[in-house]
Amino acid sequence: MKHRIIGICCLFLLQATASLGQSLLSVRTAVEIALENNYAVRLSQNNLLIAKENVTHGNAGMLPSVTANLTQNNSVQNSRQVQSNGEERSLDNAKNNNLTYGVSLGWTVFDGLGMFTRYERLQEMEKLGDAELKRTMLTTIADVITQYYMIVEQENLLSAMDSNIIISQERLRTAENRYSIGKASKLEVLNVQVNLNSDVSTRLRQVEVVKNMKTNLNSLMARDLDEPFHVDRLVSIDEGLVYDDLLDKAKQLNPDLQLIMINKRLAELDLKNIKASRYPVVRVNSGYNFSRSESSLGFVSSSNARGLNYGVTASMNIFDGFNQRRNERVAKRQIDQVALQFEQQQLFIKTSIKTAYETYLTNLQLTKLEDKNEAIARQNLDITLAKYTIGSISAVEFRDAQENFINAVSRSNAARLQAKLTEIQLKELIGQLEL
């Protein structure tokens, strides 16, 4: 049995030695690594860069297009021609060559101001990409902080389990001493040994929980999943959140509301672009071409030409099967749709803030209460251990004190975590999640 105790102590010693090589990972550092490496953030950054690249006057159709053209046609034919005076001419394998090349320019100078609408739409798409990036970053920050403090909670619980096992080891030593002098039965020693084994088994499960959570945090940071680290076990809670201030900030900063407002502007620009189809499209065309042709049979054996051509093309939709009117109606419905989505999202955010704030206040009260309960349970455990050592209480009573202590620690950690998580949720809802 002594070998069993020594083995448990060696296990703790090995784990403590292994933990010495782990670096301390602060929550700020974890967020910085995630914002740099997280794939969702990087994808959103690429989408924003693409949107920025698309904001050009040429993409909106405001600039002319210049093209170079070259056409070469050749033919070999057996030709037979009858002139108007009845003379007949024929030639086998008659060759005909025609070469044309030059530069042409086309420029739409008026399309119902649609080109300006399209340019403004490209600018709004850039704003949309920026808002989506901010939302992705906000979500990533919230996920990292949440996972970080969940690890803190579980490591605090693991620490309490370590203390509990040390106490169980002391119980076992005391029970063995009492048994050796005839003041305790063998049954009491066996029960204490079973309790110790149960504590060690529970601790192993808890170690697994902590490892899996650290793996998930490494995944959020997009780094080696086996990267070891320690967390700062101190959890500070912002107790100064005010409901009305949260609502005001949410109206201004909530990323989902900002996205809907941009989508509303895009819907308005789509309607404006559709209405531009009611106006004529005026296009200027120009070019400078060179041409040369050769013919083995005909009145002209060869010819060359070059020169400038220019002109104006105007077109206007007169009737398209009422599609213009239908498209405008659909675009107006889409604007109404986005307006309804905005009102719906406002109600959702207000409801979420209301419920989360009530939970936040409750968790703050529970945190203070459970901290007191933990202190009481710890004091009760110390007293119970002293009484058990001198044999004034039974092993069962002492075990109850142990379990009460672990439960008090677990509730205290859970209350503190829930208070922190509701704080994070509220700050994520208002779009202002500072570290």
Automatic annotation (TrEMBL):
Residues 1-21 form the signal peptide. GO terms for molecular function: efflux transmembrane transporter activity; porin activity. Pfam families: OEP. It is found in: Cell outer membrane. The keyword Signal applies. It comes from the Bacteria. GO terms for cellular component: cell outer membrane; efflux pump complex. Its main location: membrane. Transmembrane segments: none annotated. Keywords: Cell outer membrane, Membrane, Signal, Transmembrane, Transmembrane beta strand, Transport. Belongs to the outer membrane factor (OMF) (TC 1.B.17) family. PANTHER family: OUTER MEMBRANE PROTEIN TOLC. This is Outer membrane protein TolC. It comes from Sphingobacterium psychroaquaticum.
